[in-house]
Amino acid sequence: MNSSDSLARGVAAASPGTLHARSVAGDIRVPPSAGRTVRFGRGDEPDVDLCVGEDDLRVSRRHGELTYSRRQWWLRNTGQQLVRLPRGRLMHTSTEPVPLAAGYTPLFVQGSGHREHLVELYVTSHDQQPLVPRRRADTLPPKRWPLDEDERLLLVVLGQRYLRYEEAPRPLSYRQAAEQLSYLREGSGWGERRIEHRIVAVRRRLSDGGFPQPLLQDREAGGPCDNNLLHNLLKGLVESTTLVPPDLDLIDDPEELEDLDGLNV
C-alpha cells in the first residue's frame, strides 16, 4: 500500500475532528482531545511530533504547533521564519492562532534560500466521505473563462509577461497596449480609453460569473487600485489556462517586440 492509499484509508476510518499531518519525514494521526497540542519543526522527539525540514537550519526546532480547543484545531507559528497558508496568508510568531477548517490545508515553512517545506494537514469532518484513490478516472479540466476574439487579443497584449511566465509580472500600461495594437491592427481604433472600457467590462462580467480573485473595486472599503485588479484578472486567466503561451502567436512579431522593449517602464 502506498502513502496516498494509506492516507485515504486513515482519513476514512478516523473519527470527526481527527488531525492528520504529513511531511516528507513522516505522518501522524491525532484524535481530538481538549488541550492536546501537536508540535512540528526541525527537532527530534520528544520536542516535536512531526519532523519538518530536518536538514535546514532556517527551520526552527519547534516551528509551529496545533492545539485542539473549542472543538477546533488552532495553528500557531512558534518559529523564527514565516509560515505561509493558502491564498498567500502569512503567519509570524506574533500572529494570533488560526483555526483550521475541516478538510485539507497545506502550509509552507520558509527555509534556506528559496526552499519551502510543505506540511499537509487534514481535519476529518462529521460528514466526511471516504477518500478513494481515482487513478484511472478522467481528469477534471480547470475552469476556463469565455472570451471573444477582441478580448483575447487585448488580454494577451496586456498580459504577455504573464504568458511568458516571467518572475513577478505586471500588466502593460494601456498606453503601451494601444501603441502595440496600432501596429498589430492598424486602423482598428484601439485607443487607451477604449481598451480601458473593454477591460472594465470583462472584469465586471467575469466577477459576476464567480471569478476567484477580486476584479471590482470596493469604493466604500477602499479596495485595490485598477492596476492591481488587472493583475488579478491576468493572473487568474493564466492560472486557469484560459490564456496560454500559444496565444502569444497573436502578437509575436520580432520587429514589433523590439520596438516595444523601448516602451517598457
UniProtKB/TrEMBL annotation:
Lineage: Bacteria, Bacillati, Actinomycetota, Actinomycetes, Kitasatosporales
Organism: Streptomyces armeniacus
UniProt-annotated stretches for the region Disordered: 23-42
Residue span, FHA domain: 38-90
Keywords in alphabetical order: Phosphoprotein
Stated name of the protein: FHA domain-containing protein
Domain of life (superkingdom): Bacteria
